[in-house]
């Protein structure tokens, strides 16, 4: 185990200097004094600077600005001189804050430690939410997680204390809910090491998911680079009502744009329909914008956000936002690169899946489609919660349906799980009776954590390979993501529809038209869900779960044992040799969808996220090899034998043979996990050549010194054979906008040359030449 020279004590600072808000309600005041935590004081908000920068840019561009442009350009490092061209230029930005979840924070903090810097330059936090496995229930699962992950939690807590990073302990809740409750505010720019960081857009923020190396840049005080986003406008008209929920908006948008339609763009919602959506409902929509590849999503500031700020103890921020409201909404006459219009009054409940979050169906049609496709109609498990749908309103609407079933003597036919988004949500729904109703109908309340949504689920009701259906209120439903079973058909929908289908036990149940049968034979229909947007009383903060860093951590130490199998200090990657990359072996030619789950699986592998060598044993084990249609089975071209992808890669590395991966469209979609880039680099990879990339993964590859390249002609994918060798030419003249050439050498002795495109700018080329962005950072410090 790692050894630590620090025992971190709970530090509670005065309000406005890092303490949690104290609720004024007499019923909660005693508990609130105990349950103090960090939130963003209004004194830290500088709308004047944001306004000044926006005015500079607006005058330069001489046109109205969208809301996302205001916030993004308002955070430019050089608003006077920055070249701004949507979809083309790279912006140098100064985000306000960094947030990291525990699975990605390990590598981010290890990289920050390697940088040699004494303290983070911007407010930063670590959130323990990914390492808690769902087994039996919240209390037992949390206790078990603390025991199993003690080494990692101690490392994160002590590293946070030393380097000035706040630490949210296991049990505090999911990172995105904590951000919404404490740190998000209209106009802030926040980056987070999780792809669903855009959740904060529900409170008028620009919150962007990134890899750990990007987070290190911001924590180091270095301007952060982002390709100037295009802006997709989604105009909302009409009003949500009945069974239709905010989740249906993004399910519909995903069906329109697909999993890559938002790549390189910010999705900006606007129009009169916005006001019919709660603040947490807007967060739901922004959260799942990650599934269309969007850089982030955002809503304009309105009274729903003001009410949420006030209810979460941030009335001063609400008043300040009111004062600068014109800054926090789009300019009249602003232009979008694409516009989608959705009439909320006509929108119907949706359910998306299986196996991809953009396969959209109206709930009224899913039964017929499932029967035609041969999808299992029995719902085995319904799961509500996750960072997408775990608000007070979500839980209340689900409970309103559960109560109707209980009133008629019914319980869920399917298994049913409930994941509160935060300790504050858990405590409040317990106080207000929602938790009891959901438990009485058959629900198991899990820990305040990600759980099954990210594969942390010890599922035992079906065997691996057994075809079955589950319905969730999650955001992502890739093959085997939730339970490691590739035969599980996972569908994503709203918590209300999940609850209704769990009660009925059938995928083809339409709650708008179909009847349930009570034990006494009475037929009844569920009334549309209804619940308060926010609690009538103040939120109950629950237990104190926040640790603020000491004012000076320079005397503290964070030690990692060389014998640890969970944590490993990083060694610098080798620099570019200065020559073309010659005779690289094709490691695997991937067929079809290849998400970051395929490249670096989560679930049981999460425990190795702080140990690069150990977690590299999962590299590409979920990718389909085009040669034999198998997963984790490729031919070792040196031995002629078949083996696992990581094993063959290690063998090539040991024998001095560099290698490349060949991939299809939207390669690396899904999670922000930079391990999907670190692992190929660690095991000897040099280039990833595909038809197209997902944004975060492409950046992560660049950060680690790899070459993410795309076929100039997508049909050239078909020219490469699994046993080919490739030479990449033109690296001595590597420059922005200049394509590279690849010579393909076939085993029959023939060869052909193809053109490869890239999106590197000058700074990113320096990362490649130095061996990684972190190496380049160290060079600049010398």
TrEMBL record:
UniProt domain Aconitase/3-isopropylmalate dehydratase large subunit alpha/beta/alpha: residue ranges: 69-505
Aconitase A/isopropylmalate dehydratase small subunit swivel domain span: 584-713
Keywords of the record: 4Fe-4S, Iron, Iron-sulfur, Lyase, Metal-binding, Mitochondrion, Transit peptide, Tricarboxylic acid cycle
EC number of the protein: 4.2.1.3
GO annotation, biological process: tricarboxylic acid cycle
Cofactor(s) required for function per UniProt: [4Fe-4S] cluster
InterPro entries: Acnase/IPM_dHydase_lsu_aba_1/3 (IPR015931), Acoase/IPM_deHydtase_lsu_aba (IPR001030), Aconitase/3IPM_dehydase_swvl (IPR015928), Aconitase/IPM_isomerase (IPR050926), Aconitase_4Fe-4S_BS (IPR018136), Aconitase_4Fe-4S_dom (IPR036008), Aconitase_dom2 (IPR015932), Aconitase_mito-like (IPR006248)
Superkingdom of this protein's organism: Eukaryota
Catalytic activity: citrate = D-threo-isocitrate
Cofactor comment text: Binds 1 [4Fe-4S] cluster per subunit.
Pfam families xrefs: Aconitase, Aconitase_C
Pathway field: Carbohydrate metabolism; tricarboxylic acid cycle; isocitrate from oxaloacetate: step 2/2
SUPFAM superfamilies: Aconitase iron-sulfur domain, LeuD/IlvD-like
GO molecular function ontology, one term from the record: 4 iron, 4 sulfur cluster binding
EC main group: lyase
Gene3D superfamilies, per database record: Aconitase, Domain 2, Aconitase, domain 3, Aconitase, domain 4
Subcellular location(s) of the protein: Mitochondrion
GO cellular component: mitochondrion
Family that this chain belongs to: Belongs to the aconitase/IPM isomerase family.
Functional summary from the UniProt entry: Catalyzes the isomerization of citrate to isocitrate via cis-aconitate.
Stored NCBIfam families: aconitase_mito, PRK07229.1
Protein name as it appears in the record: Aconitate hydratase, mitochondrial
């Amino acid at each position: 185990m790692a050894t630590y020279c620090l025992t971190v004590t709970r530090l509670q600072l005065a309000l406005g200097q890092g303490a949690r808000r104290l609720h004024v309600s007499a019923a909660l005041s005693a508990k609130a004094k105990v349950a103090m935590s960090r939130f963003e004081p209004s004194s830290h908000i500088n709308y004047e600077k944001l306004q000044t920068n926006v005015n500079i840019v607006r005058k330069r561009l001489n046109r109205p600005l969208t809301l996302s442009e205001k916030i993004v350009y308002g955070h430019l490092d050089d608003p006077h001189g920055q070249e701004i061209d949507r979809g083309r230029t790279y912006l140098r930005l100064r985000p306000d804050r960094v947030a990291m979840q525990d699975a990605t924070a390990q590598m981010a903090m290890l990289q920050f430690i390697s940088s040699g810097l004494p303290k983070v330059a911007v407010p930063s936090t670590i959130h323990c939410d990914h390492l808690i496995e769902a087994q039996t229930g919240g209390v037992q699962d949390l206790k078990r997680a603390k025991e199993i992950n003690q080494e990692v939690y101690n490392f994160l807590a002590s590293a946070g204390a030393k380097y000035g990073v706040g630490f949210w302990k296991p049990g505090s809740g999911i990172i995105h809910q904590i951000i919404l409750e404490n740190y998000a505010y209209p106009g802030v720019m926040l980056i987070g090491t999780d792809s669903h960081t855009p959740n904060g857009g529900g409170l008028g923020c620009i919150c962007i998911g990134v890899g750990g190396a990007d987070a290190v840049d911001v924590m180091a005080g270095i301007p952060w680079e982002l390709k100037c986003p295009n802006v997709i406008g989604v105009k909302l008209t009409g009003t949500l009502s009945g069974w239709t929920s905010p989740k249906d908006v993004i399910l519909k948008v995903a069906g329109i744009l697909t999993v890559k339609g938002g790549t390189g763009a910010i999705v900006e919602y606007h129009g009169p329909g916005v006001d019919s959506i709660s603040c947490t409902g807007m967060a739901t929509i922004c959260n799942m914008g990650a599934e269309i590849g969007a850089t982030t999503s955002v809503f304009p500031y309105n009274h729903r956000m003001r009410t949420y700020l006030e209810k979460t103890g941030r009335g001063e921020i609400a008043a300040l936002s009111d004062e600068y409201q014109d800054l926090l909404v789009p300019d009249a006459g602003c232009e979008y690169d694409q516009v989608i219009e959705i009439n909320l009054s006509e929108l119907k409940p949706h359910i998306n899946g299986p196996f991809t979050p953009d396969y959209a169906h109206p709930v009224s049609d899913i039964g017929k489609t499932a029967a035609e496709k041969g999808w299992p109609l029995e719902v085995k498990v319904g799961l509500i919660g996750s960072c997408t749908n775990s608000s007070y309103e979500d839980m209340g609407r689900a409970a309103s349906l559960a109560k109707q079933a209980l009133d008629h003597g019914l319980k869920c036919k399917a298994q049913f799980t409930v994941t509160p988004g935060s300790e504050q949500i858990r405590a409040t729904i317990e106080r207000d009776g929602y938790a009891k109703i959901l438990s009485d109908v058959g629900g198991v309340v899990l820990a305040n954590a990600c759980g099954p949504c990210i594969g942390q689920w010890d599922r035992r009701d079906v065997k691996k390979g057994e075809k079955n259906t589950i319905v969730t209120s999650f955001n992502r439903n890739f093959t085997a993501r939730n339970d490691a079973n590739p035969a599980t058909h996972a569908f994503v929908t709203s918590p209300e529809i999940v609850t209704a289908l769990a009660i009925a036990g059938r995928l083809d149940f339409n709650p708008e038209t179909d009847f349930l049968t009570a034990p006494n034979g009475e037929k009844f229909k569920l009334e549309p869900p209804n619940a308060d947007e926010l609690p009538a009383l103040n939120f109950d903060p629950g237990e104190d779960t926040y640790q603020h860093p000491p004012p000076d951590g320079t005397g503290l130490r964070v030690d990692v044992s060389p014998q640890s199998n969970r944590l490993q200090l990083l060694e610098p990657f080798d620099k570019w040799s200065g020559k073309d990359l010659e005779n690289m072996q094709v490691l695997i030619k991937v067929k079809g969808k290849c998400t970051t789950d395929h490249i670096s699986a989560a679930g049981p592998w999460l425990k190795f996220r702080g140990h690069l060598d150990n977690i590299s044993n999962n590299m590409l084990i979920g990718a389909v090899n085009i040669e034999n249609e198998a997963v984790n089975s490729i031919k070792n071209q040196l031995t002629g034998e078949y083996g696992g992808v990581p094993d063959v890669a290690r063998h090539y590395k040991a024998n001095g043979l560099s290698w490349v991966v060949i991939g299809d469209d939207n390669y690396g979609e899904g999670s922000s996990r930079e391990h999907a880039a670190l692992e190929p680099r660690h095991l000897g990879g040099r280039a990833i050549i595909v038809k197209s990339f997902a944004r975060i993964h492409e950046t992560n590859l660049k950060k680690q010194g790899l070459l993410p390249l795309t076929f100039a002609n997508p049909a050239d994918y078909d020219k490469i054979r699994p046993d080919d060798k490739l030479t990449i030419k033109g690296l001595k003249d590597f420059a922005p906008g200049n394509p590279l050439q690849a010579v393909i050498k076939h085993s029959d002795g023939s060869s052909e040359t193809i053109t490869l495109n890239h999106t590197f700018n000058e700074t990113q080329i320096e990362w490649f030449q130095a061996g990684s962005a972190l190496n380049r950072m160290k060079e600049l410090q010398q």
